[in-house]
Amino acid sequence: MNDIGGIRTALFVPGNRPERVDKAVQSAADSVIIDLEDAVPLAEKAQARTRVREKIQEHAGRALMVRVNALDTALSSLDLAEILVSGLDAVMLPKVQRPEDVQRMHSLLMEHETAKGVPVGSAALVSLLESALAVENAFRIASENMSPPRPHRLAFGAADFTVDMGVMMSKTGEELDYPRARIAVACRAAGIAAPLDSPFMVDLKDAEALKADTLRAKNLGFGGRLCIHPNQVDICNRIYSPSEQELAFAARVVAAFEESEAAGKGAIQVDGKMIDYPIVAQCRRMLEIAGRMKP
Question: What is the C-alpha end-to-end distance of the chain, expressed in Å?
Answer without folding.
Answer: 21
